[in-house]
Structure formats: structure tokens, C-alpha cells
Q: What sequence folds into this?
């Protein structure tokens, strides 16, 4: 009897603790979202000096966009090759049309990999770069100095990064699509798993150009999420170098979760 009372008391305390934790998480999430919205509103104001803004934006295009091209090339080629291998091993059947492997590989690359999955890699590279850079500026009091001088620090620091990467990201997306198809061609050309003629027939069959535009539209949204969330996480860092590392991790994880959620929403709206 005594054991049952203690068990019931423990269950009540545990349930109360779970409720408190859930309420705290909900309140904390709402506060973070509100502060993020205020940060974005502060970022998207007219720059004080347009010439300096465009110069900074071009620098960010080079640093965040152009420097990501080697990553795009390497990952897309290998993923395209792996997709073709998997399709050939698992779909090959005498009842399947000759174009099946190339067609399925192309659809996977255009609809999901190059427009969605690939952005997890960019969140790790670009997002962590932005968060650590802005976080370092915060802990070394460079942002505080800008605020004291009356400069809109969020606008000056974050807007060139967001605008530069969003403008350049379609180039990365189209390049990823093309190199993924090239990776599949390498498998057809240098192995005996599938002939080049069958592969080329597949990637040309039933092509819908809307899928390319659909992927590009999604990448604009994902590029904005990665850069804005990373800028927000870095801008509000408190502490020292350890907190900068935590902010980079938070930026990557938060961006990845938002990309997954928005991928579902955009797919439902656009397809």
C-alpha cells in the first residue's frame, strides 16, 4: 500500500515536471521566434551607404557562394553516381522500360537532392561560417562599437551576407543538378552496369522544365533560412569563444530542421 502511494506521488511529480518543461520550451521558442522576427526587420532596412553595401555583397558572394563551388562539384558528382548505381541494382527488371534508371535518377536529383538535401551540406559550411564570424564580432565587442557610433549593425553585417548568398544560390543549384547527371554518366561510361545510350535516354525522357524552376524557388527560401538563422545566432551570442562554437552548432541544427519543415510546405504548395 505504501509502495503504491509512493509510486502515485512519483508519477504526479514526474507529470508536473514534464508540463513545466513543455511550457518552458514553448515560451522559450516563442521568445526566440519573436526576437528573430525583430532581428530580420532590423536587417532589412535601407543601407546607409549603398556603394559600401554592394561592395560587401560582392565580397560575400565570393566567400559564401563561389568558394562553395568545389563542395558542390565533389558532392553532386558522387551522389549522382551512387543514385544511378542504386537505381540499376534495385530497379532492373525485364518488365521495366529501358529509360527507367536514368529517368528515376534525374527526378531524384532535380526534385530533392539538388534543391533540398544538398542544403544540409551548405548549412554546415555557410551557416557555421556566418554564425562564427558574427559571433566573434560580438564577443570582441565590434558590434557594440558599431551600435555606439549609431550604425545599424545588424543591417551592415548581416544584409550583405543574406543578399549575396540568396542571389548566388541558383547558380549552385543548377550546377549541382548538372554535375549529379554527369556523375551518373561516369557510371554509364566507365562501368558495365548500364549503357550510355540507356542512361541518356532516361535523363531525356518525360522532362518537365517546371521541376528545375521548382528546385530554384525552394533554394531561394532555404538560402534565406540558412543565412538569416546563422546571422541571428551569431548576433546574439553572449560569453566567449565557447559560446561562439555553440552558436555555430545551433545555427546548423536550427537551419536543418527548418529546411525539413519548409520542404514539406513548399512541396505541397508548388507540386
A:
Amino acid at each position: 500500500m505504501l509502495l503504491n502511494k509512493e509510486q502515485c506521488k512519483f508519477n504526479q511529480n514526474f507529470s508536473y515536471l514534464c508540463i513545466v518543461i513543455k511550457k518552458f520550451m514553448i515560451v522559450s521558442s516563442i521568445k526566440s521566434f519573436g526576437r528573430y522576427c525583430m532581428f530580420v526587420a532590423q536587417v532589412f532596412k535601407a543601407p546607409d551607404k549603398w556603394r559600401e553595401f554592394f561592395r560587401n555583397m560582392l565580397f560575400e558572394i565570393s566567400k559564401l557562394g563561389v568558394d562553395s563551388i568545389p563542395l558542390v562539384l565533389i558532392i553532386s558528382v558522387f551522389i549522382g553516381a551512387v543514385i544511378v548505381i542504386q537505381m540499376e541494382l534495385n530497379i532492373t527488371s525485364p518488365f521495366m522500360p529501358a529509360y527507367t534508371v536514368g529517368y528515376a535518377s534525374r527526378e531524384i536529383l532535380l526534385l530533392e537532392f539538388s534543391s533540398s538535401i544538398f542544403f544540409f551540406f551548405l548549412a554546415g559550411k555557410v551557416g557555421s561560417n556566418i554564425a562564427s564570424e558574427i559571433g566573434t564580432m560580438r564577443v570582441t565587442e565590434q558590434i557594440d562599437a558599431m551600435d555606439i557610433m549609431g550604425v545599424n549593425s545588424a543591417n551592415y553585417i548581416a544584409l550583405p551576407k543574406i543578399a549575396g548568398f540568396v542571389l548566388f544560390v541558383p547558380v549552385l543549384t543548377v550546377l549541382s543538378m548538372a554535375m549529379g547527371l554527369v556523375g551518373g554518366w561516369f557510371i554509364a561510361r566507365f562501368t558495365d552496369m548500364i549503357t550510355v545510350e540507356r542512361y541518356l535516354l532516361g535523363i531525356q525522357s518525360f522532362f518537365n522544365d517546371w521541376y528545375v524552376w521548382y528546385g530554384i524557388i525552394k533554394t531561394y527560401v532555404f538560402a534565406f533560412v540558412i543565412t538569416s538563422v546563422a546571422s541571428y545566432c551569431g548576433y546574439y551570442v553572449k560569453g566567449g569563444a565557447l559560446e561562439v562554437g555553440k552558436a555555430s552548432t545551433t545555427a546548423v541544427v536550427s537551419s536543418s530542421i527548418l529546411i525539413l519543415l519548409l520542404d514539406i510546405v513548399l512541396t505541397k504548395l508548388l507540386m
